[in-house]
Protein: D-galacturonic acid reductase
Organism: Trichoderma guizhouense
Amino acid sequence: MAITTFKLNNGLEMPAVGLGTWQSKAGEVQTAVSYALQNGYKLVDGAYCYANEDEVGEGLKEAFAAGVKREDVFVVTKVWATYNTRVEEGLDKSLKSLGLDYVDLLLVHWPVLLNPNGNHDKFPTLPNGKRDVIFDYNHVDGWKQMEAVLKTGKTKAIGVSNYSKKYLEQLIPHATVVPAVNQIENHPSLPQQEIVDFCREHGIHVMAYSPLGSTGSPLMSAEPVVKIAEKKGVSPGTVLLSYHVSRGSTVLAKSVTPTRIKANLEIVALDDEDLKLLNAYSDDLASKGELKRYVYPPFGIDFGFPDKS
Ligand SMILES: NC(=O)C1=CN([C@@H]2O[C@H](COP(=O)(O)OP(=O)(O)OC[C@H]3O[C@@H](n4cnc5c(N)ncnc54)[C@H](OP(=O)(O)O)[C@@H]3O)[C@@H](O)[C@H]2O)C=CC1
Ligand SMILES: O=C[C@H](O)[C@@H](O)[C@@H](O)[C@H](O)C(=O)O
């Protein structure tokens, strides 16, 4: 199946598959980004907090020098939690590292404020070692800053990440610009159907992260995934990534391994029977209370996700 794009609520086309860069080491991510863009990828997902945007920028530069056009690449970055009260400053830092004058999409990484005047630029802590969270912060104020930054042209679209239905319900009545995207953890062990449905109803495009189960890709050996892969003659990774495109979402897979980067571009159509099998797997985990969230950083905040409260 040819790689498709999805239209965002502001008319922008977003590719269906993207390269993730979280935990990609500085020494490896330049090559990964450059290789991906020269081998068919059109979307790169990064973040200030990943502390590798200089090298992602080098990878972009390398790809542009090899003939890839800036306008053909959809670059995503995220405002980190210590910058939610100074969004433009955070974006400027990312742009400088990336060597760009605009990104295609800027996301609020998490709806939480970490102390902007704390003991660390990204992960300030209290004397007891816990994260230095500003608990009386209202994430709607952060969104107002996102709306302001959209007007500068330094990003073509704005969206959120790690927003549960509850947080979106708090945000939407106050939003002049409805988020174009909600980037959330999503895979058959965490289908998040409620949020996916809510986003669809409100014209918010879902970007699925950790589709392989994050570090070490544990979901590749999930039984129904292997079964569908064998039936279709594709890899388990292809099944896990295709699951999202079938649901109308963009999917992000991280790899610094060229063969995997290339393999992760393969998307196939899943038929009703395949989806039924994957949904039955999700329902079974849900009924046993065994849904699995791989990414839940220790902010000490209830983000309103039904599986963690
Ligand atoms: N908004 C947010 O809060 C979050 C956003 N994200 C975004 O989503 C991206 C993807 O999620 P991520 O958590 O990184 O995890 P993924 O589910 O993409 O899994 C990445 C792991 O799978 C391995 N892998 C990749 N492709 C294959 C393959 N074909 N066969 C076998 N193993 C494979 C990688 O190894 P190797 O690299 O060694 O090849 C790595 O260990 C992130 O990189 C980031 O951009 C992720 C988490 C949170
Ligand atoms: O995007 C990936 C994740 O959200 C990651 O940024 C966080 O888990 C971060 O490492 C944290 O510890 O808060």
